[in-house]
Design a protein that fits this description.
405 residues, flat
């Protein structure tokens, strides 16, 4: 009896041990998955959460990736560009450890060039930062901050070099290792972007200001541009879909005149992206100091505004440009009034930019932004009583009393 019981326990332990290991691919499974592609994925990787970066293997078990550029963020390993279990691994240890199926991504703490290895049998991984020294690329010339003394650019991969700098007017050249040694000596004729030419004259900077400079050492493509600053949010013309760009002549002070805003949130951001620190909100209106990564500035009423923003100090102003005059009563009508189903608004000489229907408590209950000389606003579903229409054109505003039957 004891022998039978012992045999049963051993069988159960064997089954349990076997089941515990099935989450790892067996040799047979690996043979059937000879085309399995292991990749890295996540916001720390070159492809972000959009594109996998494939690793290389010669035996279907050990996978490697060399000279890959990573940034701070999460990194996961996965198979065949899919989250299908068990080929989806994360972890907590850095720079090496044992990956865990379906865990959170491994945290990459610093930007750099890494060598990565992963073992499909043991799940052992390593993510080792390389001590890489890249060629120094700098700008120089009478337009550069240091004049004919080099101002160094920065890079994380030895290929793409960037710099945000205050430039003057005049010539600007790019060069390597603070020397004129060919072929690492470039000029050009095109502004604000083009392809650099070896040993050519400097690119001519036409006006002083703060510029974002980007240079690709492989293709020699360059750009020397002011940062794009835009407004974004449900108060802006493009809502949360399309940026509305401000205008600048110096890369510091940005303006936008006579832009139509509606009630809602407005944020400032750089290069149509949420990348910090070029992402600002705030609480003050009509002016204040924008706060990095804060909620949007609340625009309380529809109208046309003039907006200014200083990208260095973050000071902003959002002021209404509406005149104080109302619509000429001889050119503007609303009918029927009283109305049962809808009100028709008509202007004979000014386009109506927006109409807000508010109740006697001042609450907005209907809005229209049709931007037309003739606008119809639905009144069906509203309770009988008195309402007000706040009507805005490009140059005027008016409030009209409405009656709903």
């Amino acid at each position: 009896m004891k022998k039978k019981l012992l045999f049963s326990v051993i069988c159960l332990m064997t089954i349990a041990f076997t089941n515990a290991k099935t989450i790892r691919p067996t040799s047979l499974e690996k043979q059937s998955l000879s085309n399995l592609q292991i990749s890295i994925f996540g916001d720390a990787t070159p492809g972000g959460w959009v594109s996998d970066t494939d690793m290389v293997t010669i035996d279907g078990d050990n996978y490697t990736l060399t000279n890959v550029s990573l940034i701070p963020g999460a990194l996961k390993f996965r198979g065949n560009h899919s989250w299908t279990l068990p080929y989806n691994w994360g972890g907590t240890a850095f720079p090496s450890g044992t990956a865990v199926v379906d865990a959170n991504g491994i945290t990459i703490p610093t930007t750099g060039i890494y060598t990565i290895s992963f073992n499909l049998t043991t799940f052992a991984y390593s993510i080792i930062k390389q001590n890489v020294t890249f060629q120094t690329i700098s700008i120089i010339g009478d337009a550069a901050p240091g004049g004919w003394v080099d101002t160094d650019m920065t890079t994380t991969d030895g290929n793409i070099y960037t710099l945000r700098a205050t430039l003057g007017t005049g010539a600007l050249k790019l060069r390597g290792d603070h020397s004129w040694t060919l072929p690492y000596n470039w000029g050009g004729t095109d502004f604000p972007s083009g392809t650099a030419v070896i040993d050519a004259n400097g690119v001519i900077i036409p006006s002083a200001g703060i510029y974002d400079i980007i240079f690709n050492k492989t293709t020699l493509a360059y750009s020397i541009k002011f940062k794009v600053i835009s407004i974004f949010g449900d108060a802006t013309p493009g809502a949360w879909t399309t940026d509305t760009d401000l205008v600048t002549t110096d890369g510091t002070n940005y303006t936008l005149t006579n832009v139509a805003l509606v009630p809602g949130a407005l944020k400032f951001r750089g290069d149509h992206s949420w990348t910090l620190p070029y992402n600002w909100g705030g609480t003050a209106l009509p002016s204040g100091t924008a706060v990095v990564d804060a909620n949007g500035i609340t625009i309380p009423t529809a109208g046309n505004y003039t907006i200014s923003f200083n990208v260095t100090t973050a000071l902003y102003s959002i002021s209404s440009t509406l005149g104080t005059q109302g619509f000429n009563v001889s050119t503007f009508t609303v009918y029927p009034n009283p109305a049962k189903n809808s009100w028709n608004f008509s202007s004979s000489n000014e386009r109506i930019e927006s109409i807000q229907i508010v109740d006697v408590l001042g609450k907005t209950i209907r809005s229209s932004f049709s931007k037309s000389n003739n606008v119809t606003v639905d009144a069906s579903g509203l309770t009988s009583g008195i309402y007000f229409a706040k009507i805005t054109s490009a140059n005027a505003t008016n409030t009209v009393k409405l009656i709903k039957e």
